[in-house]
Hints:
By secondary structure, the protein is of the alpha+beta class. The protein contains 2 helices and 6 strands, in the order βββααβββ.
Amino acid sequence: KLPCWLRVVSAGNMLSHIGHQILGMNTIQLYTKVPCSRTPGHQENNNFAAVNMNIGPGDSEWFGVPNQYWGALQELCEKNNVDYLHGSWWPKMADLREAGIPCYRFMQRPGELVWVNTGCVHWVQ
């Protein structure tokens, strides 16, 4: 049983009370990925937080940038002729360092949960 802050429907979750479904926001959303696939850089719908569970097999490598640096990432995208919101992009670590953009990088093992905070820009492989 999940704690109330992880439940799709909860009395304390305002999205449970709006009267209609918003896919991935007040409904469960599942992405199935094959090994070695990538999820390019993005922010969650409406910049909400998200919970991600790795059900295996294999690890996932995560990259995350705090919300306050999204503008700098957008500038990197523009510099490379990529649309930040609708394009497919994967920043180079050297470009992030050069632009002074901090990046968290870690591995998610099978069975582990990752909390993506509100507005966090992230990409996964």
